[in-house]
Design a protein that fits this description.
With 89 residues, the protein is an all-alpha fold. Helices cover 78% and strands 0% of the residues.
């Protein structure tokens, strides 16, 4: 993996994490770094799932892959909000 791949993965992770926070209703009381981390992990897992389904490489924007990534990130953010909130009380 080249440095450009790592940088683009971080950027995509930030965007995916931000989209996940926008999709979830209400305020999420987790740190921004955790949202970014969840976004990066969701982007990697979402790409693997899309590849397994055969939809990872399409012409134009890969909307199905992006949808999978955002759904995974939203699930991860909602899960971490529940866990992080319980730990902080």
């Amino acid at each position: 993996m080249e440095i450009t791949g790592i940088i683009s993965g971080l950027v995509i992770g930030i965007v995916i994490g931000a989209l996940a926070r926008l999709v979830l209703p209400g305020r999420q009381r987790i740190p921004v770094w955790l949202t970014i981390l969840i976004g990066v992990v969701a982007a990697l897992i979402g790409t693997a799932i899309a590849a397994a389904l055969g939809v990872a490489d399409t012409r134009g924007i890969d909307w199905i892959e992006l949808g999978i990534q955002v759904a995974l990130a939203a699930f991860g953010v909602s899960l971490s909000v529940g866990l992080y909130g319980k730990r902080r009380k």
